[in-house]
Write a structure and sequence with these properties.
about 190 residues; alpha+beta; Secreted effector protein pipB2 fold; five-stranded antiparallel β-sheet; 9 strands; about 20% helix; globular
Length: about 190
């Protein structure tokens, strides 16, 4: 348990996590130019967010998927989306109070480079004691383009698997698929 902070693109995220009894509880605070947003999460939600972030890291060709679950009277939805600026994870929590509902949301950009925002987010959540929750009866999912939500074959996290990769040099991982030329995001050769 503890607190961590990281920045990606023009945003920063602050994540304090505490243990109440035997359960985790945390807050994710997103700050950008001229705005601040925060959402409080319980252990189930933190674990589902971590599993979703790691799924996005693994499935780089996944165009869109979503997960939904309920925790403590709130509905939480996690979606992988893409726009002209790149891929991002959209997290929305809806709380029904009396006849009125309140909505809170966070946006986690993928980030640039081999050690982008999602990898850092997964690494920070794990460092705070959060464990991924892959399949629960409370979790509903919808996946397009063959993406998955299940754990890998080993017990190692995605972040640790990337770090263990032989191509790792000073927190940079090199991954080449096939024998063709490698291109960067802008279409030029790397």
């Amino acid at each position: 348990m503890g607190r961590c902070w990281f920045a990606v693109e023009s945003k920063s995220f602050d994540i304090p996590v505490e243990e109440l009894g035997k359960r985790l509880r945390g807050v994710i605070v997103e700050r950008g130019r001229g705005f601040s947003s925060w959402v409080r999460f319980g252990e189930l939600s933190l674990g589902c967010i971590l599993a979703g972030v790691e799924a996005c890291c693994r499935d780089v060709w996944l165009s869109r998927w979503n997960k939904g679950w309920k925790e403590g009277g709130r509905k939480v939805k996690l979606e992988c989306r893409e726009n002209g600026a790149g891929r991002f994870i959209f997290c929305k929590a809806v709380t029904a109070v009396m006849a009125e509902s309140k909505s809170f949301s966070l946006v986690f950009p993928e980030g640039r480079g081999n050690h982008g925002g999602w990898l850092i987010l997964a690494e920070k959540l794990r460092s705070l004691g959060v464990a991924p929750i892959f399949e629960e009866k409370k979790v509903e999912s919808s996946v397009e383009n063959g993406g998955s939500w299940k754990a890998g074959s080993g017990s190692m996290s995605y972040v640790n698997a990337v770090r263990k990769n032989e191509g790792l040099v000073e927190e940079t991982a090199w991954l080449q698929i096939g024998e063709g030329d490698v291109q960067d995001r802008e279409g030029g050769e790397a």
